[in-house]
Amino acid sequence: MTMATLGTLLDALRPDVVQLATGDAQLAVAGVELLDAGALEPVAPQCLLLALGLNLSSPRAVRQALRLASETGGALAVKCASGLPADVAEQARTAGTTVVAVNPDIPWSRLYGLVSTLLATQPATGEPASGPAGGDLFSLANSVAAICGGAVAIMDTNQTIVAYSNLPGQPIDETRRVGILSRQVPDHALPHHLTDELWRSDSVKLIRRDGYDPRLAVVIRAGDTALGSLWATFPDEDAITDSEAVLATAAKLAALHLLTIRRHLDADQESRNAALQTALRHPGHADRALPLPASLLCLAETANPDHRPDHRTDHRPDHRAGLLRALGLLELDARSLGHEPTVSLVKDRMYVLLEAAPRGSVTVATLATHFHQRATRLLHTNLLIVRSEPVEDPDGLRQARDDLDRAISHLRDTGARPGSYAARDLHAEIVQQRLFDAVRGDPMLRTGFGGVIDAYDVRHGTAYRATLLSYLRNFGDVRAAGAELTLHENTVRKRIRRAQELFGVALDNPTHRLLLELELGAVTPGATCGDDAPV
Q1: Chain-centre distance of CA 283, in angstroms?
Q2: Which fold has domain 443-522?
Q3: What is the CATH topology of the domain spanning 4-120?
Q4: What fold does the segment set 290-436 form as a domain?
Q5: Which residues contact 66 (CB under 8 A, 6 or more apart)?
Q6: The pTM is what?
Q7: Which of 19, 103, 136, 228 is the most buried (most CB within 10 A)?
């Protein structure tokens, strides 16, 4: 990635996207990075730092972000609806930090992609200005074909052929013929089209296939994000000349066009997001079709601060802010791996709809695992991700959401570690959560012991509920219960005996044990079920 002045980048972007708030427009920018305002870490020098989740009303948080930008010679990008607050602007001037204001409606992922591509397409020092003309993608394909002598095709990450050259006398084989007719990479060519050697590389690669014409290929990128690929077909390897530089330059220009196409799709994205929100809350009332069959994902942060990757136990979790920080990265990862995510944020949970098997994409399970690893490493999140089986119709989305919500509740209640989970592997736990809800909602399903025990704990500062519940869940194994509660097994034995004396619970009766476990599990600590507890 080459370097540009901040002013050059701002001129290339619309004023309704980003504006200079304070500082030096001539500041040199060499890169763009996502900055997790909740866990600031060293970053590369001279970067535009996108401050995800930065609370502008917190002087301490603002001061830390400004200092990091200043120390690295970079600029700070913050979201603000009506201009940079005066106190923040004063802090920035005092710190000598350049700050740009970003429209809150613009996803961080879009700004990241735009800046990455603008930097990637800046000519390096000494680089000749001549090269393929811009125009639309078809003009670009024809220009490249005229220079290198091959037949050119440009694909997006969904393996859709978005443009191709149509000069006379071009080489054509069965793959190119079928691809142009269907506007998709043919199935028989996908294994070669999706080879790791190509998609993990930034350079032009020679692709050979028995019985087909040789090809040069290069991935089209915006920074680290793959947007598509550019291919040139030749009649034989002898016809391949020194075309690598031409194809590499063309890939940079194609990135600008593909990002423009993606921006036009943003309105469709917002419409799909609204349809998902409606389908999750009001089944059967979505005003447009959703990409079904699809898997629904639920993302939520764990309830345990000890699971934060940076082990900052003094951190007070803001679950919604954490999800907002993760949203931009999720969109980037999903699109680069062949998926178009549909997103709905409800309270402290984010729901993501991913088409079950779009062409040329990784599986939903692979994407979920990949994203979780990246979010943990880059954003220091402690996310739980649960995915459903493919849903066939909008009415099934509400049921899928119910399953995912219960799975998340179970994982939080049991202190599960952050990770990616499948709802089918948690089916028994989901059924258990439904039983808990039934017990909470119907006094006739309660023996009354749960409320009495919880009320006693609240009044006396004891932990009989937690001890009994762990004892029952571990089938009376005091050693396992002690390990779960971090207590000596003798302490567990004493508590169990004392609980039997205090409350009269019959732990030698299997039916009583089952009902007690359900009732204790249904109780929210400190808020008893119904009116069973004594005053």
Answers
A1: 25
A2: Arc Repressor Mutant, subunit A (1.10.10)
A3: 3.40.1390
A4: Alpha-Beta Plaits (3.30.70)
A5: 76, 91, 92, 95, 97, 99
A6: 0.52
A7: 228
3-state secondary structure of 1: coil
In CATH terms, 137-259 corresponds, of 3.10.50.40, 2.40.50.150, 1.20.59.20, 3.30.450.40, to: 3.30.450.40
End-to-end CA distance of the chain: 69
How far is 407 from 432, CA to CA, in rounded Å?
Answer: 10
DSSP 129-141: S--S--SSHHHHH
Q: Give the sign of the dihedral formed by CA 163, CA 207, CA 337, CA 257.
A: negative
**Residue 514 exposure: Cα atoms within 13 Å on the Cβ side:** 6
Number of H-type helices and E-type strands within the chain: 18, 17
CATH 3.30.450.40 intervals, the chain:
137-259
Alpha-carbon distance values, 276 to 228, 285, 428 (Å): 27, 10, 27
**Predicted confidence band of residue 41 (pLDDT cuts 50, 70, 90):** low
Tell me the CA distances in angstroms from 488 to 107, 470, 491, one per residue in order. Answer: 51, 13, 5
CA-CA-CA-CA torsion sign (424, 425, 428, 430): negative
The phi, psi pair for 280, rounded to 5°, reads -70, -30
Residue 485 has which token pair?
């509660």
Q: What is the DSSP string of 59-118?
A: HHHHHHHHHHHHHTT-EEEEE-TTS--HHHHHHHHHHT-EEEEE-TTS-HHHHHHHHHHH
Per-residue pLDDT tens digits for 10-35: 887 767 778 999 999 999 998 888 77
* Confidence grade of residue 39 (pLDDT, cut at 50, 70, 90): low
Over 80: is that where the pLDDT of 7 sits?
Answer: yes
Q: How many CB atoms lie within 10 A of CB 526?
A: 10
**527 membership: H or E segment, kind and range:** none
Taking only the tens place, the pLDDT of each residue in 355-382 is: 987 765 678 998 999 899 988 887 788 8
d(CA 444, CA 2): 70
For the chain, give every residue range classified as CATH 3.40.1390.20.
Answer: 4-120
Q: How far is CA 403 from CA 356, 388, 396, 417, 420, in A?
A: 18, 8, 11, 19, 15
Integer CA distances (angstroms), 153 to 144, 174, 509, in order: 10, 14, 73
Q: Token pair 């996108």 is at which residue?
A: 50
Q: Are 496 and 479 in contact (CB under 8 A)?
A: no
User: Residue 364 has which token pair?
Assistant: 């939903």
Give the whole-angstrom CA distance, residue 253 versus residue 137: 9
- From 439, 436, 443, 442, select the one nearest 532 (Cα to Cα): 443
The CB-side HSE value for 353 (13 A sphere, CA atoms) comes to 29
Question: Which is more confidently placed, 532 or 93?
Answer: 93
